[in-house]
Design a protein that fits this description.
By secondary structure, the chain is of the alpha+beta class. It folds into two domains: 135 residues, NE0471 N-terminal domain-like (2-Layer Sandwich), CATH 3.30.2020; 264 residues, Clavaminate synthase-like (Double-stranded beta-helix), CATH 3.60.130.10. 25% of the residues lie in helices and 28% in strands. Strands 9-10-21-13-23-11 form a six-stranded mixed β-sheet. Strands 2-1-6-7-8 form a five-stranded mixed β-sheet. Helix 4 packs across helix 9, helix 6 packs across helix 7 and helix 7 packs across helix 8. The protein is elongated, with a radius of gyration of 29 Å. Bound molecules: N-oxalylglycine and zinc ion (2 copies). One zinc ion binds next to loops. The site of N-oxalylglycine (OGA) has 9 residues, from strand 22 and strand 23.
Amino acid sequence: MMRTAVRFWSKTGCTTRFLSVALRVPVRSRPFASIPSGTRIEQAVSSTQLRELNVTWNDGTTHAFPNVWLRDQCWCPKCRNPTTEQNLVDSASIPLDIAFTDVALSDAGKLKITWMNDNHQSVYDGDWLRECVEKKARLERLRRALKGPRLWRALRVDSLPTARYDSVMKSDVDLYKWMLGLQDYGFAIVKGVPPVKDTLRLFAERIAYVKETIFGQLFDVIAEPEDVASHFAYTSQALDLHTDLNYREKSPGFQMLHCLESKGPPDQGTSHFADGFAAAGWLRENHPSAFHILTSLPVNFTLRTYGRKYCYHVPIICTDPCGNVEEIHVNNDTLNTSDIPRDSIVPFFASYKTFVAKLRDGSVDVRFKLEEGDLVTFCNRRILHGRTGYDPKKTRRYLQGCYLDYDEVTSKLDSLRDIYSS
Ligand code: OGA
Ligand code: ZN
Ligand code: ZN
């Protein structure tokens, strides 16, 4: 590691030193509660090779601040508007290899840097630098403590969050509790919803505005003759487990289905739901290369309907920047593998078959017949849904459905949490 000169500043004069500098910083009241009182910078060592400044505090904490960050974080009046705190430095123009000619430490715990390119001088308060380090650590602790989703394992329908319509309509606390369940399981049931057309809107609007799509706001899931149906869902055919509208730029975050009519043999038109996150977690553990392929290869979903063509490319499993599974996209009816690159075709099919087999093997799913007055709400980017086929001559089945935006639902939950979380 190359080092540059670090010298005392102010009272102690200009005693130029190399390496670490022992500071005699007077103890004073601190504006940052999270920093133990008496904490002070003990040494500041510059690495010209890595273009960073290693700062060590007297409690042993060390942190390497990249030079480019230090230059960007100069809060002098030339670099930040003191009133609005708006940035006056063009961050994109700071040279990545920016270096300084001098670093000095004051008895008052301040660090002064003179930049090589323009002789600008930046002064940093030691406590403020330490608070930047603490803030990052706090965020990281928060991220780790966040409770992940409650993954489904051989679940029974009565273990899924369930509430009565009257209670969630009348009581915000009951709605809040029900929504916490929805967040954990990605799925929740409301029972006793009047089996009356458009009652779905009343409940949906307790939570969010209804999201409009090419299928309208509320859509009727009812068997139409196959030659006129605009969608397989609007027939009496079986529907394999799927997520909806993967051919849109962002598939709707939540879906609601309200059962208005359910008459006929018990094994017909039975609903099927599976936890895509549980299956993806299993894939990651047991078939890491399949998980890698399904998270990195975008595939095409396409639908032609109402005279329009929709298509969108998205991986079957999407992860967030931390690697957590965030979205599932599975729909056999709209999947179009025609443009998968030649070398990825066989690996894709092998991985996809493994994933879908897990979804269907009964270990992460639940099956039950919706009854009149049942209303299910589920995260369409996590929970797959499907149904068995039925004979429309023997079965009368009528569902009304709608979609909600993901962030409208989370915003409702966040608003309720503000009021009711203890
Ligand atoms: C749908 C759908 C399922 C059902 O409308 O998207 O998948 O149970 N319906 O009819
Ligand atoms: Zn400045
Ligand atoms: Zn569907």
